[in-house]
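Board notes (copied after class):
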Amino acid sequence: MKKLIFCILTLSNLLFACKQADKPATNTTTGLSAYLTDTTTGVKTGGIQMVQISTPKGKFNVWTKKIGNNPKMKLLLLNGGPGATHEYFECMESFLPKEGIEIIYYDQLGCGNSDNPKDTSMWSLPRYVEEVEQVRQALKLDKDNFYLLGHSWGGILAAEYAFKYQDHLKGLIISNMMMSCPAYGKYAVEVLARQFDPKVLARIRAIEAKGDFANPEYMGLLMPNFYVKHICRIPLDQWPEPLNRSFGKMNQSLYVTMQGPSEFGIAGKLLKWDRTQDLPKLSVPVLSIGGEYDTMDPKHMQWIATRVQNGTSLYCPKGSHMSMYDDQEVYMAGLTKFIKGVDAGNKKVKL
């Protein structure tokens, strides 16, 4: 009799456990369905929306595309370069959607799928800040859902946007960017340049002195000696396709005007940009991401989090400038934890 009762109880427990195991799957399916539901009206475009912006030189269209639908966590991505495209952010599709984080791609004016006025007078930081604000308004992003991630040059743009419009932000992510271009240039000269073979460095400097940047030897020297060590620490013939595709579409006019002819230091309009003294003005939750082998000083990027009012630092020990690729698991886990932590009401997030 006791043996029969024991068998009945064991069977009941197993059936109960099976029913409980079914519940998360049902909830996950329901959540996924809501996340993937396109709530737009009219003809569906796969999340693509062209946004008309007003500029001192007239009206232009910029390209945006959203993946997912979450009223609480919307991440707008600002690409680097300046002049690259949103495409190198495509790696995020393997990580963020499953966490319920909505991704919004955006090609800045002159980049990728957006209009290109081919007017260097329009390549200016203040104008781009106003462009981001117009995109925010068009996409109906606000302080209850709007996370802004800027990578490299996009980090400068994101920071500058926050200094003026942080009241519209829920969270700010500055990825792989220092808050001082003079300090960035100094780091390139005093730290990175000293890691070169002296003969290689001498030849690079000789080409730069002549302004012969179109010389194929210039990039031929920089790619193996600098880009593979400090931009993306993956063998060049194995660089991720989205990264190659994005870099292959670089708007050189925009890049050279703002940055200069290469990532090895800075020489364009951004040469004197420095916001280090203004960092304490930022009260919005801020995540600063940096990689050990970055073109930027990793210590400076960690320091940023100590200067803003509500800062969090993410250090990628294996990462370089494209840490979302060469230290991917650390980068994506930290980014996800920060966004979900802020969504839960934390101004600072322990990573």
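Comment from the instructor: The chain has one domain: 48-351. The beta strands are 48-55, 58-67, 74-78, 102-107, 146-151, 171-175, 286-291, 311-316.
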